Amino acid sequence: MSDSSLQSDDGEPLLTVRNLKKHFDTSTGLTDRLLGGGQSVKAVDGVDLTLHEGETLAVVGESGCGKSTLGRAILNLHQPTDGTVRYGGEDITHLSGKEMKPYRQKLQLIFQDPLSSLNPRQTVNEIISAPMEVHGIGDSAADRRERVEELLVQVGLKESHADRYPHQFSGGQQQRVGIARALALEPRVIVADEPVSALDVSVQAQILNLLSELQSSYGLSLLTITHDLSVVSQIADRVAVMYLGEIVEIGPVEQIFERPQHPYTRALLSAVPRIDAADRTDRILLKGSVPSPINPPSGCRFHTRCPEVIPSSAWPGNQSTFREAFRFYNRLLHEELEIDLVRERLENEGRSTDTDTVATQLLDESFQMPIEELPDDVQTVMYEIARHLIEDNREQAIETAQGVLDSPCKQSKPEMQVSGASQASCHLLTAEVTPTISPE
After folding, report:
1. Rounded to a whole number, what is the distance in angstroms from the first to the last CA of the chain?
2. Please, which residues have CB within 8 angstroms of residue 35's CB and are 6 or more apart in sequence?
3. How far, in Å, are 59, 161, 169, 267 from residue 247 at the CA level?
4. Given 3-state DSSP classes, what are the helix, strand and coil percentages for the chain, each rounded to the nearest 5?
5. pLDDT tens digits for 26-75?
6. Pairing status of strand 422-425 against strand 246-252
7. Nearest residue to 182 via CA among 210, 159, 202, 160
């Protein structure tokens, strides 16, 4: 189900994104391409979004999840690998630069780093008036100069600032110049890519308030890309949570903040500072690094770090012990268990390096709980897996682990499920795979 089905707006979406993908080829040369040795980075991998007139939609997630690439693919600054982007009902996905020109006027971008996006050799007047000249706005240079000065005042600067160069401004002022440039063509949609992340905290609120004021004045639709949920709560109507190239939850800001459905969303929200101690929730610390977008995990991409991963039907214990065992299983699959280092440490300590001793040491180092807390049957399986690894039989180790340590989260990709006015893609929301084991 697409997220447009949950919109209350009666009109057609201004911007519609369907199954959008952007994969980057990592081939380094002709040999890679001929032999098929190159891989692709799945930066954006099947995203659905809609943006309505006058709406602010925030896309949030950790660094490297594909947010900025998504914004640029929507604007056709990165040619999409697959999927469609429709603006005002028109398909703009694969238009050439020349064909995109009339749409550039209506679709603008605010960059993350204001200084690097401004030409240091041009004055502010030249920077802001250049796009107007390209699109034939204004009868003369004087007309465009007047428009530049009006814009500068609207974004909180002075008319006289038109003759200054970017390096003569503070970071917040540089971002105001960038906002004025984006407004110069009177766009209908602005993609704001981390618009305040490069600014001091004291300046961030000013820029966010400015964007909200300008949105009302110009009737803008904003697609704001950010990693900061406090920004989302301040300016957005809806929020889309992104993880490893996919949207895992989307819905109205109030519902997402009050009743998050996806474990990843809950983890992000647990990190948001609270003024009132009574509003604070226990911090959810995600263990492990974000997997590579070159080879993302099967099933739910979050399952390798998920604190609520669903046990297999064969698991005899509770969910907390399963999480520990499942983390060990994923390290096995990704070849992160370093047997040689374990053996080397035992040798340095003058201890035996026989199979049983190395197996015991490997399990002790790999688990954050005593191995004895696992069910007896599972302990037996764990020692069997460790022995296979030590005997250099990784395939047998994986085969032994699969029966007990597999999870529905790893085996199949979850579909988007409707929950109130929001949607989330999580197996926990599907009755047939919801665990019957108590959480603790």
Report:
1. 33
2. none
3. 9, 41, 37, 15
4. 45, 15, 40
5. 865 554 555 555 689 999 999 999 999 999 999 999 988 999 999 999 99
6. antiparallel
7. 210
* Chain centre to alpha carbon of residue 134: 34
Residues sharing a CB contact under 8 Å with residue 209, sequence separation 6 or more, in sequence order: none
Residue 134 region by backbone torsions, left for phi larger than 0, else alpha for psi between -120 and 50, else beta: alpha
Q: Read off the DSSP letter of residue 174.
A: H
**Could you give the residue ranges of the DSSP H alpha helices within 290-352?**
319-333, 339-348
> What 8-state DSSP symbol labels residue 14?
S
Q: Which helix (H) or strand (E) holds 390?
A: helix 376-390
C-alpha span between 209 and 195 (Å, rounded) = 12
Concatenate the DSSP letters of all residues of 212-279 into one string. HHHHHHHT-EEEEEES-HHHHHHH-SEEEEEETTEEEEEEEHHHHHHS--SHHHHHHHHTS--SSGGG
Residue whose entry in the numeric block shows the structure tokens 């706005």: 137
Contact predicate 408/433, CB 8 Å: yes
- Tell me the C-alpha distance between 405 and 378, whole Å: 9
Alpha carbon distance 401, 342 (integer Å):
21
**pTM of the entire predicted model:** 0.87
Task: Kindly report, residue by residue over 174-191, the tens digit of the pLDDT.
Answer: 999 999 999 999 999 999
**Displacement of CA 92 from its chain's centroid (Å):** 24
3-state secondary structure of 25: strand
CA distance 180 to 50: 25
68-82, 194-208, 226-240, 273-287, range with the lowest pLDDT: 273-287
CA distance 99 to 92: 9
Q: What are phi and psi of 157, to 5 degrees?
A: -110, -175
Cβ-proximal residues to 57 (8 Å cutoff; 6+ apart), any chain: 49, 51, 222, 223, 224, 236, 237, 238, 239, 240
| Integer Cα distance of 75 and 51 in angstroms | 13
Six-digit token pair at 16?
A: 């519609």
Radius of gyration for the alpha carbons in the chain, expressed in angstroms and rounded: 26
Please name the residues in contact with 287: beta carbons below 8 A apart, sequence gap of 6 or more: 305, 327
